[in-house]
Amino acid sequence: TNRTFTMLKPDAVENGHIGAILEKISASGFRIVAMKLTQMTKADAESFYAVHNERPFFGELVEFMTRGPIVAAILEKENAVDDFRTLIGATNPADAAEGTIRKMFATSMGENAVHGSDSDENAAIEGAFHFSGREMF
Ligand code: ATP
């Protein structure tokens, strides 16, 4: 069994999709280890997405991720990282497979409803960024 980290992004929260997305995550066999509604500061987002800081969309990404609350969560399942990325679908919802979370709930390439860690190492780093040991179950 292992873990991944997710954020339901500001667009998903604004559009009222928290319940539907969590339902889909649970139905797909993920156990919620940690979860909260929180808002990233500019410094948080710049640090969280530091790997993209040279990209042309970086400023837009930081603006978007800080404009309202997100749901941050740690999820547990066998093969969590890969299975979760399959469940959310391609970065661009236009390319996302039928039935994936991004196909169902994303608006655009930038406002794509949900984040999923891309490796076990990043899942651990990103989970620790948002949660203390006492908040993980
Ligand atoms: P995430 O890291 O959020 O799970 P991802 O791994 O599918 O997404 P990345 O390539 O790591 O995609 O990009 C991180 C985020 O940056 C994307 O989810 C999206 O919100 C934003 N992004 C990526 N490419 C673009 C783009 N061309 N224009 C605008 N925003 C983009």
From TrEMBL:
<keyword id="KW-0546">Nucleotide metabolism</keyword>
<feature type="domain" description="Nucleoside diphosphate kinase-like">
    <location>
        <begin position="1"/>
        <end position="135"/>
    </location>
</feature>
<feature type="binding site">
    <location>
        <position position="57"/>
    </location>
    <ligand>
        <name>ATP</name>
    </ligand>
</feature>
<dbReference type="GO" id="GO:0004550">
    <property type="term" value="F:nucleoside diphosphate kinase activity"/>
</dbReference>
<keyword id="KW-0808">Transferase</keyword>
<keyword id="KW-0418">Kinase</keyword>
<comment type="subunit">
    <text>Homotetramer.</text>
</comment>
<feature type="binding site">
    <location>
        <position position="9"/>
    </location>
    <ligand>
        <name>ATP</name>
    </ligand>
</feature>
<keyword id="KW-0963">Cytoplasm</keyword>
<dbReference type="InterPro" id="IPR034907">
    <property type="entry name" value="NDK-like_dom"/>
</dbReference>
<dbReference type="InterPro" id="IPR036850">
    <property type="entry name" value="NDK-like_dom_sf"/>
</dbReference>
<feature type="binding site">
    <location>
        <position position="91"/>
    </location>
    <ligand>
        <name>ATP</name>
    </ligand>
</feature>
<protein>
    <recommendedName>
        <fullName>Nucleoside diphosphate kinase</fullName>
        <ecNumber>2.7.4.6</ecNumber>
    </recommendedName>
</protein>
<feature type="active site" description="Pros-phosphohistidine intermediate">
    <location>
        <position position="115"/>
    </location>
</feature>
<keyword id="KW-0547">Nucleotide-binding</keyword>
<dbReference type="InterPro" id="IPR001564">
    <property type="entry name" value="Nucleoside_diP_kinase"/>
</dbReference>
<feature type="binding site">
    <location>
        <position position="85"/>
    </location>
    <ligand>
        <name>ATP</name>
    </ligand>
</feature>
<comment type="similarity">
    <text>Belongs to the NDK family.</text>
</comment>
<comment type="function">
    <text>Major role in the synthesis of nucleoside triphosphates other than ATP. The ATP gamma phosphate is transferred to the NDP beta phosphate via a ping-pong mechanism, using a phosphorylated active-site intermediate.</text>
</comment>
<keyword id="KW-0479">Metal-binding</keyword>
<feature type="binding site">
    <location>
        <position position="112"/>
    </location>
    <ligand>
        <name>ATP</name>
    </ligand>
</feature>
<keyword id="KW-0597">Phosphoprotein</keyword>
<dbReference type="Pfam" id="PF00334">
    <property type="entry name" value="NDK"/>
</dbReference>
<feature type="binding site">
    <location>
        <position position="102"/>
    </location>
    <ligand>
        <name>ATP</name>
    </ligand>
</feature>
<keyword id="KW-0460">Magnesium</keyword>
<keyword id="KW-0067">ATP-binding</keyword>
